[in-house]
Design brief:
heterodimer, A: mainly alpha, two-stranded antiparallel ribbon, 4 strands, B: alpha+beta, five-stranded mixed sheet, 1 helix, 5 strands, 21% strand
C-alpha cells in the first residue's frame, strides 16, 4: 500500500493555523473575564480577525532566524573580547557612553520583555497576542546580549558593577525607569502606543542607528554587534506598533481621540528621554559620526514626518509637541551635558569638558547657539578645572513631576530662561519642565502624584542604607546617598581627568604597543 | 480629567509635607545664571527666617559664581510662581506666606552671567 503523505503547510498557512485556528470563544467563562484588561481604556474592537500581522512569523521560523543572529553576535563578541577589543576604542572617555547604556537602557529592554509578555496575554485577538509574545522574546534577548557584551568592559572599568541596583535608585535613572513604569501600568492598548509606537520610532530609531554607528566609528565592535543585532528586530517592532495603531483606528471612529492623545503624550515622553541620547551623541563619542541635531533631522524630522503623513489618512495629526522638540535640537545635548557635568559627583560615569577642537566641532555644528550660550560656560568651567576648582553643583536640583528630569530646559524661543510650569492638585503644587509634561499630568494627575522623585525621596530620608544613622555626629547625607546607590566614590564618579579608568586605559594600551 | 483605571484608584501623594520630618520644600532659581543648570530644591523648616536662606544657605549653593559677590540685594527682583513678590527678610518662611513646594526666582539686574552668556 502506498503511503499518502499530506503536503506540508506553507508559512502562510501555518501562521493562519496558529493565530486563528487555535483560538476559540470560551464557554465556561465569559470572554470578558478571560481577557479583563482590553476594554477599560475605551478602545472599541469589533473584529479581531481583521488584525494583520505584517510579518506572519511562526515560532519555528522565528527560532531559526534568531538563532542565526545569535551565532554571529557571539562569534563577534568572543573575538572582540579575546583580542582585548576594549583597548581598541578611540579613547577611554567613550566607555562612559556604555555605562549610561548599561544602567539606563538595558534594564528597559527587560521591562519591555515584561510588558509585551503581559499584553501578549491580554489581547482578545490571537494574532496580536502571538506578535506580542515574539516581541517579548526579542526584548529579553536584547537585554541578555547587551549584558553579555558589556560585561567584558566591567572586568576593566568602573561604574558598571551594579547597574540593576542603580537603575532603581540613582537620581537620573528614574527618568528611563519612570518612563517605562508609566507605560506598563497603563492598559494594553496604551502600552502598545507607548512602547510599540513611540519608544520604537522616537527612541530606538535614534539610539540604535546613529548612536550604534557611533559605537562602530569609535572601534567598539561589541556594542556595534549587539546594536545591529537588535536593530533588525526593531524594524519588526516598529511595524507591529504601527499596525496596532492602524488597527485601532480602522476598528471604530471613537478610537481616534484616544489614540491621538496617546500619540501626543508618548511622543513627548520619548522626546524628553532622548535628552540622554542627545548628550551621548555629542559629548561621549570622541570620534563623531554626526551631531545630535543632524541625527534628529534625519531620523525624526524626515523619518517621523513621513510616518505622520502616512497616519494623516486615519485622521491623526502631528503632535503639537513636535514643534518644540524640533526647536530644542539646537540646545538639548549642551543643556544635558552641562547638567551631568555639574552633578558628576552623584553619577556612576565620568564627565569632562570637551577639548578645544571638540568645542570647535560643536560651534560648527551648532552655529546659532553654541558660541552664544554654551561655549562661554564650558570654557569657564575648563579654566576653573585647570586651576584646581572643578565646578560641582552641591545643591540638589528641582525635578519635573512628569519626566523627572531636572528643570534644565529653557523656554521655547528664549534659551536664557528656565521654563517653569505648575499645576495645583488637591491642595498641593506640582511643577513641570514644559507645557507638554504639564498636559500629561493634568490629564491624569492621580497617576503622577505617585512619582518616586529622587530628590524628594532623598529629603524624606528614604535613600539611606538600613544601618545609616542620621542622628550620629558628622553624618554625611550625600555620602550616605551614594553608598545607598552602591556607587564607589572616587572610582565611579567625578571628572574623567585623573580617573582610574583614564590611567588604566593609558597604561594597558601602552603595554600593547611598547615593551615596557 | 482623571486617571483611566480598571478599578478604584487610591490617591496617595508621595510628597506631602507630612513626609519631610517638619521641613517643607522650597525651590529657588537664579535667573540669567544657567551655569546652575536647574532651580534648586531645599527642605527648610517653615519657622526659618527668610534672610537666613539668602545669607546662610544660598552662598553655599551659588557663591562659586563670579557674579554672586556683585549682587546688590536692594535691587534684586523676586518672583513667586512667576509673579512679582516681595519677601520680608526678617520674617519666617511661613510668615512670608511660603508653602510647601513653592517656587521662587530671583533676578539680579545688570548681572548676566559668564561673559554675558546668561550662564
Amino acid at each position: 500500500m502506498d503511503m499518502k503523505a499530506n503536503k506540508k503547510l506553507g508559512l502562510k498557512e501555518r501562521y493562519a493555523a496558529m493565530t486563528r485556528g487555535l483560538d476559540w470563544e470560551t464557554s465556561y467563562q465569559p470572554m470578558d473575564e478571560v481577557y479583563p484588561y482590553d476594554k477599560f481604556e475605551g478602545i472599541k474592537i469589533h473584529d479581531w480577525d481583521k488584525w494583520e500581522d505584517p510579518f506572519r512569523l511562526t515560532m519555528d521560523a522565528y527560532w531559526k532566524y534568531q538563532a542565526e543572529k545569535e551565532r554571529k553576535l557571539y562569534a563577534i563578541l568572543d573575538a572582540f573580547n579575546q583580542n582585548n577589543g576594549h583597548l581598541g576604542v578611540t579613547d577611554a572617555r567613550y566607555i562612559n557612553a556604555l555605562k549610561l547604556f548599561m544602567t539606563g537602557v538595558s534594564p528597559l529592554e527587560y521591562m519591555a520583555h515584561r510588558g509585551f509578555a503581559h499584553v501578549g496575554r491580554q489581547f482578545r485577538g490571537a494574532g496580536a497576542r502571538v506578535a506580542c509574545q515574539m516581541q517579548s522574546l526579542d526584548e529579553i534577548r536584547h537585554a541578555q546580549t547587551q549584558i553579555h557584551s558589556l560585561s567584558n568592559y566591567n572586568k576593566y572599568y568602573n561604574g558598571l558593577h551594579d547597574w540593576r541596583h542603580m537603575h532603581d535608585r540613582v537620581w537620573y535613572l528614574s527618568v528611563p525607569k519612570s518612563f517605562f513604569e508609566d507605560a506598563y501600568t497603563a492598559g494594553p492598548f496604551e502600552f502598545m502606543v507607548a512602547i510599540g509606537f513611540s519608544f520604537e520610532y522616537v527612541l530606538t530609531n535614534l539610539l540604535f542607528v546613529p548612536f550604534v554607528s557611533g559605537a562602530a566609528y569609535n572601534g567598539d565592535m561589541g556594542a556595534m554587534a549587539f546594536g545591529f543585532s537588535a536593530q533588525s528586530d526593531e524594524a519588526r517592532h516598529m511595524t507591529l506598533g504601527l499596525e496596532m495603531i492602524k488597527f485601532m483606528l480602522e476598528q471604530d471612529p471613537d478610537n481616534l481621540p484616544i489614540v491621538q492623545r496617546w500619540i501626543d503624550k508618548w511622543t513627548w515622553r520619548g522626546v524628553r528621554m532622548l535628552t540622554l541620547v542627545a548628550m551621548m551623541m555629542d559629548y561621549t563619542l570622541p570620534k563623531r559620526v554626526m551631531s545630535w541635531k543632524e541625527a534628529w533631522e534625519v531620523y525624526f524630522e524626515e523619518a517621523g514626518g513621513a510616518l505622520f503623513k502616512d497616519l494623516a489618512r486615519y485622521g491623526i495629526t502631528v503632535p503639537k509637541c513636535v514643534e518644540q522638540a524640533n526647536a530644542d535640537k539646537d540646545h538639548l545635548s549642551h543643556q544635558a551635558w552641562a547638567t551631568f557635568y555639574q552633578y558628576g559627583a552623584a553619577a556612576d560615569f565620568h564627565t569632562w569638558m570637551p577639548e578645544p577642537d571638540e568645542l570647535d566641532w560643536l560651534s560648527q555644528k551648532y552655529p546659532d547657539t553654541f558660541d552664544k550660550y554654551y561655549r562661554p560656560r564650558f570654557e569657564y568651567w575648563a579654566k576653573e578645572a585647570k586651576e584646581g576648582r572643578r565646578f560641582y553643583n552641591k545643591s540638589l536640583p528641582m525635578l519635573c513631576q512628569c519626566c523627572q528630569i531636572p528643570m534644565l530646559f529653557t523656554e521655547p524661543g528664549d534659551p536664557t530662561k528656565i521654563c517653569y510650569r505648575e499645576s495645583d492638585f488637591q491642595g498641593e503644587k506640582y511643577h513641570f519642565c514644559s507645557d507638554h509634561c504639564k498636559d500629561i499630568f493634568d490629564h491624569e494627575p492621580e497617576k503622577y502624584v505617585h512619582a518616586w522623585m529622587p530628590v524628594h525621596q532623598i529629603y524624606q530620608g528614604n535613600c539611606f542604607e538600613p544601618d545609616a544613622d542620621p542622628t550620629k555626629e558628622g553624618f554625611d547625607p550625600l555620602g550616605e546617598v551614594l553608598r545607598y546607590y552602591h556607587l564607589n566614590v572616587g572610582r565611579d564618579n567625578f571628572d574623567f581627568e585623573g580617573s582610574e579608568d583614564q590611567k588604566n586605559f593609558a597604561a594597558w594600551r601602552k603595554q600593547t604597543t611598547t615593551n615596557t | 480629567m482623571s486617571v483611566v483605571a480598571i478599578k478604584p484608584y487610591p490617591v496617595l501623594p508621595r510628597d506631602g509635607v507630612d513626609k519631610f520630618h517638619g521641613a517643607q520644600l522650597l525651590y529657588i532659581g537664579w535667573e540669567d545664571h544657567l551655569m546652575f543648570c536647574a532651580p534648586l530644591a531645599f527642605p527648610f523648616p517653615p519657622q526659618m527666617r527668610f534672610g537666613d536662606v539668602v545669607e546662610q544657605v544660598l552662598p553655599g549653593s551659588y557663591g562659586v559664581h563670579p557674579d554672586w559677590a556683585k549682587i546688590d540685594w536692594s535691587a534684586v527682583q523676586w518672583f513667586k510662581s512667576g509673579q512679582p513678590w516681595t519677601p520680608d527678610f526678617n520674617k519666617s518662611l511661613a510668615d512670608n506666606g511660603l508653602k510647601h513646594k513653592d517656587v521662587l526666582r530671583f533676578r539680579t539686574p545688570g548681572l548676566t552671567g559668564i561673559a554675558g552668556s546668561f550662564s
